[in-house]
């Protein structure tokens, strides 16, 4: 862990201007304009970021295309390619403190949480190195005495990766590792609100000395740079994480060039607490699941369904916890909730508190200490007396706001939990093992946890159903997305061939 003295020195290292990274070089944007990168805690400028647009995307895609078609990356010996991947992992480990610091500074996420999050990033690379080494196996089919058919896994081409601001480094590496390990080349368009750690990723990859053009970063806005990447005919696939509405736009815009799309989208996930649950553990998990990462978490348990018989006690305990949550400077190690990413998002989250009032719910939230008035703080909030048809129970707020509802029995809560457009995650708390499984099977979501908070294993599938996404990331699901399976048919005898035109 770094001391406050070291934090100051990290601060001095922040570059005034952040460049794009194209064809192995750090470069300005063609148009030459920049985006002001703001600090969510002070609302002062951190630095300026090159604003990439379609010209820059064209350059980056051309570099990635050239590297894919004619460079050594996809054809080099697997052992050598994996050496690069392990080198990236080692370089990330060497820079963990800096990455955690940049991430907290840039996003407002508390540094104790960014440390945990980024410490998993190097494992993304090691995991996919191991996976590719073990998974480059195909199927073989004997076809009578005439053919032997077999499959191979080939890289797809140029991968376009588009990422959000809420867990930038983790999500970028989570996509980049399988894309590179399987032999693709990449253009990354990181979120415009959190460019610092993506820039550090480019520095790390530059240090790892990957062949030119294999990895490119174009900062810029979604509607310009992101859009150009999505529509580019030389890009074969798009892996996107972000809002559901953005996802649907991307699917439409990628249709003309027929790209494969992996979509990790929004959520409004239920946590269901039955009266027989382990009260204290369910309470801990519920509070952590909504207020960690400032509530800006796709898998946040933002809808609590608590069984009527224990509602009074549970809500009382929740209120006490919420009152005690420590707001503060994201760079302070003891801070539990920091400021939201930017003023726009702050206004959106605040607007939902007004909507809650209008809808007749009760809003319980603490005060923001005066010393933090410059930051984009929304105090941890409970919305009580809510019902499932209200907007606050249906729409993704993406902030530290928990909508609390009650239920009578299992049938009712399953109906309520599923009566929502999203289907990313769900959490079930009960000590009745049969009921735990039963409810988990019936909740419409891609990922369920029973008597657990959101603990993940890299081998398992990650993704949502309904409006929360298409496809899965993680494990071999990532491998499958970034590879094209080919079948090779080889004749081992003289099978009959039609003789058209022969007299
Ligand atoms: P966003 O959709 O606004 O932006 C995500 C990325 O898409 C950014 O890089 C943005 O510049 C780009 N973009 C925007 N418009 C585009 C367009 N027309 N064409 C191409 N690119 C475009 O999302 P956000 O606000 O950055 O992130 C928060 C959202 O992400 C929440 O909804 C959250 O639930 C979701 N999320 C989902 C997961 C998951 O795994 N399911 C994980 C993290 C975040």
TrEMBL record:
The active site is at residue 264. Gene3D superfamilies: Aldehyde Dehydrogenase, Chain A, domain 1, Aldehyde Dehydrogenase, Chain A, domain 2. Its EC number is 1.2.1.32. GO terms for molecular function: 5-carboxymethyl-2-hydroxymuconic-semialdehyde dehydrogenase activity; aminomuconate-semialdehyde dehydrogenase activity. Residues 33-487 form the Aldehyde dehydrogenase domain. One of its GO terms (biological process) is 4-hydroxyphenylacetate catabolic process. Keywords: NAD, Oxidoreductase. Belongs to the aldehyde dehydrogenase family. This is 2-aminomuconic 6-semialdehyde dehydrogenase.
